[in-house]
Design goal:
The complex is a heterodimer of chains A (224) and B (799).
Chain A (H helix, E strand, L loop, with lengths): L1 E11 L4 E12 L4 E5 L6 H8 L7 E6 L2 E2 L5 H10 L1 E5 L10 H12 L3 H14 L15 H13 L5 E5 L7 H16 L3 E5 L3 H4 L4 E6 L2 E7 L1
Chain B lengths: L1 H14 L1 H29 L11 E10 L2 E6 L5 H9 L3 E16 L2 E11 L3 H4 L4 E4 L8 E5 H8 L8 E4 L3 E9 L12 E4 L1 H6 L14 E6 L5 H15 L8 E9 L19 H32 L1 H9 L4 H37 L11 H29 L6 H5 L6 H29 L9 E5 L10 H13 L4 E7 L11 E2 L1 E2 L11 E5 L4 H4 L4 E4 L12 E5 H6 L5 H4 L3 E4 L7 E7 L14 E4 L8 E6 L4 H15 L7 E3 H6 L3 H45 L4 H35 L10 H27 L3 H6 L2
Parallel strand pairs in B: 4-9, 6-8, 16-21, 18-20
Antiparallel strand pairs in B: 1-2, 1-10, 1-11, 3-4, 3-7, 3-10, 5-8, 6-9, 7-8, 12-22, 12-23, 13-22, 14-16, 15-19, 17-20, 18-21, 19-20
Classes of the chains: A alpha/beta (224), B alpha+beta (799).
């Protein structure tokens, strides 16, 4: 479903070119669960941003379902974000002025889903994540793990094909981290394609496949 | 969807209370003052609009020209014109004639002086229908008239005035046929009584058909629906050929014009207005200032919310990431600005309703008695607020749209606050300060300028109206005068037709000076004065003498002021004294020049000094008696004066005013406007200041890491404060440069309203700049001191 070939990302300064990513080739199939690992500054987040259409590569090809997605118009990008992919973050990035319910509902509103359908979809997820009782709480009133659950719920409520997770367990204690990883695993088993960036060897193992980056170059790409 | 947008907007407003309060306070202050300004402006524009079909009502004005030069442009026209229009102009539905007089009225033992009486023709009622409470307004019968509700109470007490006879001035009996509801303050008609002018015809004071030569009457017409004012004007002008051929003898031409009723409150420069004129440009300034004050409050909102959006940019990015388009972000900012603005509008509206009477009395505006339709105030304010919501919401929305999902490297480093709007606010503050300082300087200039006439300690009494037709009134005055002069404390006693500080209602004539072969085409105000008027008013006698105490020696003697002396072609005062001049027309007797006095300001400094001639005739009606008092105890002297007055004039009330107070009343409108300007200026500077305060908080929040790093690397507190303040000093400097030319131009134009004006001194500009800088630095420095004195490790630890 997703194909990267010869992706470079570099910054030019006066006298030299600094590469963040160099000649990255990568293919992700539908139903895959990919973990990207590597030390700080190895380019993992940049790679995820490029995949998530948040950043442009300096050179190379990137296509989704054999369609090039470089140089897309803002509108088309927004469409991809609304319908094709969901994001979760290390810092959750929930909207603080909104309740749990509203946080999950918002992407649907942006998408233009009708009110009755929204209610059903949000109720489903609340149910699934056992958060019905917490639906009227604000993010600050939840634990980190619960906030991340809301983050996941918000990311998947629009039924995306691809879930991008940037260090989803980075701020969590290990028990909560495991709970999140289990959730991701279940989602993957249900057919969701997932790409996560992580520091944590143990959590990387949840992926079906691990890519190891070093200085912007893929050193290893192996099944776990 | 709407629910969630408003809910989340509401929550975010509650969460950032500081910011919301700053915004709300600014908006409420701005909106409240805007509402008052709207109310006042509606009041000014509502003049005479309550008469039915106002648009059909016009006044006939007259312009006389000679050799292409306008020598007279006045609101008053001949009385014969009234009859001619009635007879010969089919386009009119009705026309009316009016003459204004301050009168003494009495009923039984009650006497009231200084009443506003309009003597009006039959049909006047059809042009200006009154709101009758009882009886009818019928001016076809001589010796009858109507009275206002308030005056009816004052004069008749609990009695029903209808059918009762009141006495006017020397005792003219007038039967009251009706009571009308008091005219509201927003009309140019100045009248508490309307009395049939036919009374005078019946008394033989004027003839039945009127004459064409004396421009002493207001002629109003009401056109039939659909009649063209242009056609009517040209038909009225054709009357000039038929009846005013005499003008050609002096190579003059005349032109009548129709002035629509609704413009009568604003057009300046027409002689002989009945009502007060409001300076149109002062009013426009007021509108502009009120709108700008409001605008400054909106700028606060925009500045703060933009700064705020940068600090909550993560949230904005998240929203974008989960699929929000720019449109959605706009909804969000529109919702926030709607909530704030609507809340502010409701609060302001309540304040406006509560404070209306107070504000009206503080600024001495009669607005609370006039019926201003509340609907208009609501409509205008709602529309304005809607505009404000759009402006601030849109601007904010555009700023939000600019935030990229992924922060770009360059943006991330900067601690920049949008400076454009802040500079604009500062520039507006500087312009306001310059304007206010200039207005104040002009007003104190007017009040302190040497007028050439000593008005302090002069008491001006309204002449005894009951003696209007008494042949002995002059003798009685002489008795009154010598009585006063025998008492201590009274220095000079004189009479005048009009005294300094009053606009002469009549007395303009033309003169010629055969000695110098001069016959100026300009009217000279011919006033009456008693001997001793030079001393009473402290005038400077340049040559010759004051009038003699011996009245018989003053026959056909006159005194000139310097302007009339020059106009008549004399080279110097000595040259003029002893020469003879003549009134134009009617075979005047030779008038011998007895003395020449230095020019002085007979009216306020709006008007240039004009030529005046005094003769020694006793005022044929009323007039004013001026008495210079020289005393430590004003109250006691006044009571002596009153006793003396009552002894000599038992039928007339002792009605007096101090000459300087009366003179300063001419500046009432300027004082009012300057008060309004000052308040709005202070308010808008206050709003801008709290906005700046809010902004500095964001600014320092963004730069706190940089500040800490500087301190870790050895910067001391003073250096850091200097660094932060430098930004604001730069902004004030830019604002100053923008403000100067604009303020200069605006004030230059404003000062053109005055014949005598103060200078636009450089220090006003500098002072305004320094004040703004001072306010900005005061606002900023405490916060920058706090930021600079913070332990840098505290900040860096959390980074």
């Amino acid at each position: 479903m997703l194909h990267l070939s010869n992706i470079d990302k570099y910054y030019d300064s006066k006298f030299q070119r600094t590469f963040v990513l160099k000649a990255v080739n990568m293919e992700v199939k539908e139903g895959d669960f990919l973990s990207i690992m590597g030390p700080s500054g190895s380019g993992k987040s940049t790679l995820l941003n490029i995949i998530g259409l948040l950043d442009q590569p300096s050179a190379g090809e990137y296509s989704l379902y054999d369609k090039s997605v470089l140089d897309l118009k803002e509108k088309v990008k927004v469409d991809y974000h609304r319908n094709f992919m969901g994001f979760i973050f290390q810092a959750y990035h929930l909207i603080e002025d909104m309740t749990v319910y509203e946080n999950i509902e918002t992407p649907l509103i942006y998408k233009g889903v009708k009110s009755r359908d929204r209610q059903a979809m949000v109720a489903d997820l609340l149910d699934r994540f056992n958060m019905v009782a917490k639906k009227d709480l604000f993010p600050q009133q939840l634990s980190g793990g619960q906030q991340q659950l809301v983050g996941i719920a918000r990311a998947i409520v629009g039924k995306p094909k691809l879930l991008l997770a940037d260090e989803p367990t980075g701020n969590l204690q290990s028990v909560q981290g495991e709970m999140i990883m289990e959730t991701l695993k279940t989602l993957n088993q249900e057919g969701m394609t997932i790409i996560q960036v992580t520091h944590n060897e143990k959590f990387a193992e949840y992926g079906k496949r691990i890519i190891r980056l070093e200085d912007g170059i893929i050193r290893k790409d192996e099944k776990s | 969807m709407l629910r969630i947008i408003f809910l989340s907007a509401f929550r975010s407003l509650l969460k950032y209370k500081h910011m919301s309060i700053i915004n709300l306070v600014g908006l409420i202050a701005g909106l409240t003052s805007f509402l008052f300004a709207v109310h006042y402006i509606l009041f000014e524009f509502s003049y005479d609009s309550f008469f039915n079909k106002t648009e059909n009502v016009y006044r006939v004005n007259l312009e006389v020209e000679k050799e292409g030069q306008t020598i007279f442009h006045g609101a008053k026209t001949p009385r014969a014109l009234f009859f001619a229009i009635k007879r010969e102009i089919p386009e009119i539905e009705a026309n009316g004639l009016a003459y204004f007089e301050k009168c003494l009225v009495n009923f039984q033992d009650r006497t009231i002086a200084n009443q506003d009486v309009l003597w009006v023709s039959e049909d006047f009622e059809k042009v200006f229908p009154l709101d009758m409470i009882a009886g009818i307004a019928d001016y076809t019968r001589p010796r009858s008239g109507v009275i206002s509700e308030t005056c009816a109470k004052a004069l008749y007490g609990n009695e029903n005035p209808i059918g009762k006879i009141m006495r006017v001035n020397e005792g003219m009996p007038i039967e009251i046929t009706g009571i009308f509801k008091d005219l509201p303050p927003n009309t140019h008609l100045r009248a508490q009584y309307f009395i049939a002018v036919k009374t005078w015809v019946e008394m033989g004071a004027i003839n039945a058909e009127g004459d064409w030569r004396w421009n002493g009457w207001w002629n109003y017409i009401r056109l039939k629906d659909g009649s063209s004012p242009e056609v009517t004007t040209s038909k009225i002008n054709s009357l000039i050929q038929s009846y005013m051929g005499f003008l050609a003898d002096d190579q003059r031409s005349a032109r009548f014009s129709l002035q629509p009723l609704k413009t009568m409150h604003f057009i300046q420069g027409i002689e002989g207005e009945m009502g007060a004129i409001t300076n149109y440009s002062s009013l426009i300034n007021l509108i502009v200032i009120a709108v700008i004050t409001l605008f400054i409050a909106w700028i606060n909102y925009v500045n703060l919310s933009v700064a705020h959006a940068q600090s909550r940019s993560i949230q904005i990015r998240t929203r974008k990431l989960i699929g929000a388009s720019d449109f959605h972000l706009w909804h969000q900012s529109l919702a926030e600005s709607s909530i704030l603005n609507i809340a502010a509008l409701i609060a302001s509206f309540l304040l406006y309703l509560i404070l209306l009477n107070t504000v009206a009395s503080v600024f001495n505006i009669p607005v609370n008695q006039a019926q201003i339709p509340l609907g208009y105030v609501i409509l205008i304010s709602v529309l304005t607020v809607f505009g404000g919501i759009l402006f601030s919401g849109m601007y904010h929305g555009i700023e939000l749209a600019r935030i990229k999902i992924l922060p770009d490297q360059k943006q991330a480093n900067g601690g920049k606050v949008k400076s454009g709007l802040v500079v604009l606010q500062m520039a507006l503050s500087i312009i306001f300060l310059i304007s206010t300082l200039t207005v104040y300087k002009q007003i104190s200039f007017m009040k302190n300028k040497d007028l050439g006439v000593a008005l302090n300690n002069v008491v001006v009494c309204t002449g005894p109206a009951s003696l209007n037709s008494d042949g002995n009134k002059r003798q009685r005055f002489e008795g009154f005068r010598s009585d006063l002069q025998n008492q201590a404390g009274f220095e000079g006693v004189t009479f005048n037709q009009f005294v300094p500080g009053q606009e002469p209602a009549f007395g303009f004539r033309e003169f010629n000076n055969p000695t110098k072969g001069k016959s100026p085409d300009k009217q000279i105000f011919e006033n009456h004065a008693g001997s001793g008027f030079i001393k009473t008013y402290g005038l400077k006698l340049l040559a010759g003498n004051d009038f003699s105490e011996n009245q018989s020696q003053n026959l056909n003697r006159i005194i000139l002021n310097e302007s009339s002396m020059k106009l008549l072609g004399f080279d110097n005062p000595e040259d003029a004294v002893g020469k003879e001049i003549f009134r134009k027309g009617n075979n005047s007797a030779a008038l011998k020049i007895e003395g020449v006095v230095a020019d002085f300001h007979h009216e306020g400094l709006h008007k240039a000094i004009y030529p005046i001639i005094w003769n020694n005739q006793f005022p044929n009606e009323f007039g004013y008696f001026s008495i210079r008092v020289n005393t430590q105890n004003v109250q006691e002297t006044l009571s002596h004066l009153q006793t003396t007055w009552t002894r000599h004039y038992p039928k007339d009330n002792f009605d007096y005013v101090f000459a300087d107070e009366q003179f300063n009343r001419q500046y009432e409108s300027d004082s009012r406007f300057s008060k309004l300007y000052v308040w709005l200026t202070l308010l808008s500077i206050g709003i801008a200041t709290i906005g700046l305060y809010g902004l500095i908080l964001f600014y320092l929040e963004k730069r706190k890491k940089e500040i800490s790093l500087r301190k870790v690397n050895g910067a001391n507190i003073a250096q850091v404060i200097h660094l932060i303040n430098l930004t604001f000093i730069k902004w004030v400097a830019v604002a100053f440069v923008i403000a100067i030319p604009l303020a200069y131009y605006a004030m230059y134009r404003w000062l053109e309203n005055f014949a005598y004006k103060t200078e636009l001194s450089w220090w006003i500009f500098v002072l305004a700049g320094l004040l703004t800088l001072g306010i900005a630095l005061l606002t900023v420095s405490w916060q920058s001191f706090k930021a600079a004195s913070k332990n840098p490790m505290e900040v860096l630890r959390y980074e």
